[in-house]
Amino acid sequence: MSDNTDNFRDRVYTVVAQIPKGHVMTYGDIAALCGSAYASRQVGQIAHFGPPDLPWQRVVNRHGGLASAYSFGGLDGHKAALEEDGVKITEDYRVESFDRLRWRPL
DNA sequence: TGAGTGACTGTAA
DNA sequence: CTTACAGCCACTC
User: Fold this and answer.
1) pTM here?
2) Which residue among A6, A50, A74, A82 is least crowded, i.e. fewest CB within 10 A of its CB?
3) Which residues pair with A59 in a beta bridge?
4) pLDDT at A63 over 80
């Protein structure tokens, strides 16, 4: 289970770790970069069990909103974390100008 | 090997 | 606008 480093999971870690500050990505985008555009669900599960070293706070859903069961202290903590990165959050806990901050690897 | 699960997404009503 | 249903993939037991 840990022998393979070419796993989808490892790729997710790399992608999330490469998200620049002030930008965000969707689960679908990350999954697509990992090779599977429909593995968005898996990305979320990996994130929950993944290392807290990575900026999961920059990972949001297609709505540009925060995840449901976030563990950084709830939506409140997630919102604060994104603001620390320079990302503005609306009252609906959605990333403002999400479409504009959405990062894409060149 | 097989079945279950999930921090999702897209379309439909 | 919100709510509901179905589909897809990778990981764990």
Assistant:
1) 0.90
2) A6
3) A25
4) yes
